[in-house]
Amino acid sequence: MIHIRCSVELQKEFGLRREECIKFQIKYALNGKSTNEVKEIHLKPTWCKGGRARVVPVTTEEQRDLLARVLVLCGSGSMIPEHLKYVEQLGRYIRATRKAGICKLHGLRHEYAQRRYKEFTGWLAPAAGGPGSSHLTPDQRLVDHIARLKISAELGHNREAITAVYLGR
Q: Considering only CA atoms, which of 102, 85, 122, 91 is closest in space to residue 12?
């Protein structure tokens, strides 16, 4: 159960997809760095949608604390306990999250994107009650666009337009 809990926390803290957080391998993600010095985590192409590797910044102490706990839990392994296969862990994950009443976990990616948007812009995303693009000044529109590009990359998308799903317009 602790593996599932940490997987959900990885989704929340880093905006990972379900498959990414289940297949997550801390040693690979840290890329030879300690949890205290790492500035980004690395995601393998085989974990990611479309087979596109990516990096996600480490910006908070909560993220560092989580990475330290995952390192203790998994060592050189993944978030899948050694005696299980991915499909078995996925089934356990689905059952456990449904039982806990949290079956719509993709919303954690939305939360992550909205949190990063506020960090980049200084204001709430439109989907979180912030101003829509029509209410932004030209300078704010530029800040908005740059923030969306960064968030799109962090989430593993190659189009800024997809951020509208997470952030609104």
A: 102
Q: Of the candidates 125, 97, 102, 110, which has an alpha carbon nearest to the alpha carbon of residue 165?
A: 110
92 has a pLDDT exceeding 80: yes
130: enclosing H helix or E strand: none
Helical H segments across the chain, by residue range: 2-14, 18-23, 26-30, 61-74, 86-99, 107-121, 138-155, 163-167
Two structure tokens written together for 65:
């604390």
pLDDT surpasses 90 at 105: no
DSSP state string for 30-54? HTT--TTT--EEEE-TTTSGGG--E
User: Encoding tokens for residue 88?
Assistant: 């078995």
Say how far apart CA 109 and CA 117 lie, in whole Å. Answer: 12
Secondary structure class of 57 (helix, strand, coil)? strand
Nearest C-alpha neighbor of 16 from the set 154, 141, 139: 154
Instruction: Give the confidence band of 8 by pLDDT, cuts at 50, 70, 90.
Output: very high
Residue 103 has pLDDT above 80, yes or no: no
For residue 54, pLDDT over 90 is answered with yes
What number of CA atoms fall less than 13 Å from residue 106's CA on the CB side?
2
Average pLDDT rounded to a whole number, residues 77-95: 95
